[in-house]
Structure formats: structure tokens, C-alpha cells
Amino acid sequence: MKYAQFLIALLFAVSARAADFPTTTAGGESINIPTAHSVLMLRVGDDGRVYELHYGAPEKEIAKTNVLARETELYPPFGDGFILEPALEATHADGNTSTDLIYVKHSTTTIDTNVSLTRIELRDPAYPFFVTLCFKSYAAEDVIEQWTEIRNGENGTVTLARFASAAPQFKAREYWLTQFHGDYKTEATMDEEKLGHGIKILDSKIGVRADRFRFPSFILSLNAPADEETGETIGGSLEWSGSFQLAFDLDFKNRLRALCGINPFASEYKLKPGETFTTPSMLWTWSDSGKGQVSRNFHRWARQYGIRDGNKPRPVLLNNWEATDMNFTEQLIVSLFDGAKKIGADTFLLDDGWFGNAHPRNKDNAGLGDWQANTNKLPHGVSFLASEANKRGINFGIWIEPEMVNPSSDLFEQHPDWAIQQPKREFIYGRNQLDLDLSNPKVENFVWGVVSNTLSTPGVSYTKWDANRFVNQPGSTYLPADEQSELLIKYNFALYGVMSNMAASFPNVMAMACSGGGGRVDYGSMKYFDSFWPSDNTDPVSRIKIQWGFSHFFPAETIAAHVTQMGKRPLKFAIDVAMSGALGVDMDVRKLSPSDLQFLSNSIALYKKEIRDVVEQGDLYRLESPYDSARAALDYVSADKSRAVLFVYQLKGGEDKSVKPRGLDPQKHYRVRATNDREVYTGEIADGATLMRDGLPTECHNAFDSAVIEMIAQ
Ligand code: GLA
Predict the structure, then answer these.
(1) How far is residue 658's CA from residue 666's CA, in Å, rounded to a whole number?
(2) Whole-angstrom Cα distance, residue 296 to residue 591?
(3) Using CA positions, which residue lies closest to atom 1 of ligand 1?
(4) Distance, CA of 542 to chain centre
(5) How far apart are CA 671 and CA 544, in angstroms?
(6) pLDDT tens for each residue of 679-694
(7) Which residue, 157, 365, 607, 703, has most beta carbons within 10 Å?
(8) Which one, of 531, 499, 524, lies nearest residue 282 by Cα?
């Protein structure tokens, strides 16, 4: 067919298809997506497009006659009139680079008394190209989970260049953005700035361990810098463990749009005829009483819906990584079980170094990929260790890093093509290792085999899933040339396949997500994990800030916090810091003095009996920030406000100011008791209003003094 004939045929085909998809719309229709204390208000314009009117306080009245500016389109596509940063950019099968999205219908389904799902169906009037905007609202938690489904009904491939999960807008005088950035050992460092005009991008381009330099969550404060207790504040968190982009576009009318989703950078995606691309979900929560409430909303949501085993207590772990590194024998590990028993740990977690035979894992330059127990170190295998632990009443857990391979391994010798790599380029190693190419189903199957074989070992009831490098040569020997840009997206979808198999097949094996510390901390992976390892920096002075950062989005039960000797701080200080998260220990406890050993085991007993449930299930109030003063303070209050635990950490010498708890019931009378070896209070009684107004002296004066204060309603 000649080119001109082809064009005419194409034109007919397109107009025929357009006729199949009528463009009548319900202009003026309102769509409200409420939660207990917020609402997202949308309206279908007379032009059939869906516009965002408001996200925030529920009592907002909006006149029907409001003119809907094109820039306020809810999910703006590129190429047919929209002039700012678009949420969607698609090249249709015929080469047309423009898309228009017109309302077709919407439905709201009640899932249960708390959760409902609104689906708004849009289509391009000229193409069988469909976009469904999905909003799950969790009323009690004030959370809206939003994602987008993009379906290609055309006869040829549609190329997606942008595919945001969500792109809501906000209207305020000023916008203050807090991000959580860092690097290995400085994870979750908070940084707040006032947004100026133009686009501010927070992103990751490294595909795997993608949160290494920043995790995909943010706090947006309207009109003033974020405060714990006051002000309109929005929290956003993307459920995605790969490269992400959070783009904040402040436009010429001082409206702010937050475009959030998979990073479109170098990630063009070919959507085949009949295929649907479902974006990861974005979580939103709004509060008019500061970021403290934003965090509590996320925590409550996470425990009910966002993480594994949200209501189960986390075991107290004894981990051997800082104590032994990879240098251990079977005998040494078994001897550590007795220490675990002595201190009252629930689970012993065997870390890296237990596998590899032709390429033994004695250092980080060999063995990854060969997941058989090293017969020199562990002559009787992993199940023997597990049974020795079990005999002593201790559960047993094991470390894996299933997505990775060392070039020095049987696996790499047999399948060098399974590593992510770029043709004609020398390998660039990270920690002497490469990422396996999970876009290849054979590799995905292998990785699932590693997980399932290891976790099927009799006696294994816990795992730490690590991932110690990112991608900087994103090429696949498996994907065809024109799909190379899809590698990192396909990798992460395949990863979730394996993780969700793990969660479904091993419901009794608890799991900690780790990635060289906090390189994979997001609600995409946390669906399949009970907790995460926030940082290899376990110096309690640094941990206070790191745990503080993560606490903005993740509940304390997910934040693994181990007592170690890093930083050589006083033992009480290290324990008190770890007690404000999911307490564990990483030390050779045989080397502790008898009095330290006794103190550690008393603290663990106290934690399990009186502290753990309040910390893990309670509401968090951040009282004094380690960023602003010589000390940090926080408290947790049980849902019924009958119990609270307050932590104070002195970072530098200073005066002993009273610390004011929050979240108590003003009417209730609380018995106040400082625990864990600091008997400042021994049972005084005061009402919640007085405690919150006058505060409590702490007797913390010197650097590394700390206090744990319990308040129990009478
Ligand atoms: C990463 C983790 C550590 C430890 C080592 C083992 O660095 O963050 O906790 O598991 O790997 O190699």
C-alpha cells in the first residue's frame, strides 16, 4: 500500500473506531470521595473532562457555576490542549502523540463498613484507549489509595512515556515540602523547603534498592512549615520499590500539582493491544492538625491494611551480623543460642555467610547465587541449627539475598546472561555483585526457588530479605531490543510476584525487608513484610534521627531497632532507643559483663511485658525533635488512652526541662512510673490534662541520659 493510501485507510479506521465510542458526557456531575475527616471533590466539566475541585476539609462548599480551568484537570494527558506537566503521555498505534480523556461513567462500591472503591472510567473519544482512575478510601484512617489503569483497545501497540499513579492539586499561599533523603547509614534524613515556581523533582533512577538515596514518601504542608500539631498537612507515599518520581509543579496561578508514580525517565512502556497497565498505588492522607496526625493515619492504615501481620507482636531478635560478620562456625552459632535464651530473645536470626561451597561466602566477593549451606561452616546444615535453636525454646531465622549474584559463584558460571548488564560494556559491580534479571521468567523462577527452598527448611520461622546493590547498567539479555526500557518496571512487578508468593506460601515465616539498610522502605514491598531494617548505622545517636524520619510514615512495629555496641554509648541509652521500635539485639552477649547481661535481660522482659504492645500498636506523638534541640522525646498512647510510654533521649548536656506528653485522655488519672533503671517517678498519680500542661521533669541532664516513663490510667 502506498503511504497516502495507508494514511487514508488509517483515517477511516480511526473515525470508525471513534464512532464506536460515543462522546456524550454527564457534565456537572459531582464525584466525592470522602473519609472521616477529609474529602476529595471532583466534577465532570461541561467539556466531559474530570476536574479536581478540592482535597481537604469535608465542609467545603463549591459553587456549581465555578469555571473549571483546564489546568485543574484531574489526570491531564499530553497533546490535546493541556499545557503543563502531564500525568499521561501516550503515542497511539497510528503515531498520534496526543490523548484526550473524557468521562464515561463512574461507580462506587462499598467493600466493607470502612472501605469503598470509586472507579472513574475515561476514554479517548478518538481511540479505543481507556483510563480508569481508581480511589480506595479508608474512612477511619483518613487514607485514600489511588492508582490508574491504562488499557489499550487499539489494533497496535501504544507507547506510554508517562503514566503517573496520581496527580492531585493543592491550593494554598505557600507550599512546604519535606523529603526524606540520605545515603547508606544516613537514611531518612529530613529536609524541608518552601517550593518555588517551576518543577521540583524527588526521584530515584536506580531501579532496585531504589530508596537508597531517598524514599518515595513526602509531607506537604500548606501555608507554613510543617508542624506536629497544627496546620493543613498532606502525606503522600508511593507503593513502589523501583525507580520513582514525585514531581511538584507550582504553576502560574500558584496551584501546586504533585505528579507521583513510577519514574518515566528512560522507562517507555509498550502497551500491546488488549493489555492493561496498572500503576502502583499512591497513598494520601490529609490532616488539619499537623504532621503528627498524618503519621498516625499512616500507622493505623498500615496496621490494618498495609503490612503483613499488622496486629501481631514482633519477636525480639538476636541477630549475629555485627557480632560475627561472616566468620562463624556451627559451634559458635549454637553457643550464641544460649545467650539468646539468657536475654529472653524470641528468635535467633542467622545473617549473611552461611552458604556457597565451590565459592564459599566468607567475604562479600563470593557465593551469592549458590544457596546451599556451606559444609565447612555448617556441616549439619541449616535445619540442624534451627533444631538446636528450637530445642532451647528459641525460634530460628535466616538471611537471604535472592535477587543477587556474585561473579564468583556457580550460578554466574552457568548463567552469566542472567545478570542485568549492558552489551559491549564492562560490568560495574556494587559490593562485588550484580542484580539478577527478574524480567526473565526463568530467573524469576530461580529466585522463587531460592526463597521457597530456604524457607521450607524445617524449623525456619523468620527471614531477612536483603538487596545490596542498585542498577546502573539497566540492560537485559532476555528482553527484545524495543523493550529494554521496560526492564526496571518488569523487574519490580516480578519481584512483587515472588514476594507475594512468599507471604502466601509461608504465612508463619515472618519477614524483614532489608536493602543495605533502608534501601527498600516503601509500602510496595511492605505488603509482604512485617518489618524493615532502617539502617546499618546502629549507633543510637544516629538511630534516633533515622527512626524519627521513618516514623513519619511507618509504624514502630515495622522499624527494626537493635541494641548494638556501635558508637560505644551507654547500654541503657542504646536499649532505650531500641525500645521505641521493634526491639532486637545484635551483640555477642557472651562478652557482656554479668551486670550488663542482667540489665539487658531485665529490659527485654520489661519491653515484652509492658512496653511492646503500646509502642507497636499505639498512637505516636513526636514531642521534641532531635533536629531542633539537645534532646529528643516521643510518646506512644494506646488506642483507648489507658496506657502511654514516653521516651526521652538527651543528645547533648542541657537543663532538665519538663517534657510534655501528648495524646493522653485529659480526664483520666494516670500512675506515672519511670522504668528501665531510672526511678524518677515511682507511682505518682496525675490527670492527663495536668500531665500534658505541666509536663514531667526527666532528670536527664548529660549527653546520653535517657528515660522511659510509663503512664497507666487508674
Ligand atoms: C546488609 C545489611 C546488614 C547485613 C549485611 C550482610 O548490609 O544491611 O544488616 O545483613 O548486608 O551482608
Answers:
(1) 18
(2) 40
(3) 516
(4) 20
(5) 27
(6) 667 778 999 999 999 9
(7) 607
(8) 524
Q: Would you call 466 a catalytic residue per the annotation? A: yes
pLDDT attached to residue 68: 84
Nearest CA to ligand 1 atom 11: 516
E-state strands within 35-78: 39-44, 50-56
Nearest Cα neighbor of 149 from 127, 120, 169, 125 is 120
What is the rounded average pLDDT for all residues in the chain? Answer: 94
List the CATH number of the domain containing 532: 3.20.20.70
- What's the pLDDT tens digit per position in 545-581? 999 999 999 999 999 999 999 999 999 999 999 999 9
Q: Which amino acid is at 525?
A: S
575 touches 562 (CB < 8 A): no
| Whether residue 517 has its Cβ less than 6 Å from ligand 1 | yes
Domain containing 194: what range? Answer: 19-307
Q: Are 414 and 408 in contact (CB under 8 A)?
A: no
- Is there a domain that residue 9 lies in? no
Tell me, yes or no, whether 170 lies in a domain: yes
Is 13 a domain residue? no
Cβ atoms within 10 A of the Cβ of 311, count? 9
Which amino acid, residue 439?
S
pLDDT for 27: 74
* Distance in Å, CA 542 to ligand 1 centroid: 17
Q: Are residues 296 and 387 in the same domain?
A: no
- Indicate if 599 and 692 belong to the same structural domain: no
The Cα 590–Cα 343 span in angstroms is 10
The total number of structural domains that make up the chain: 3
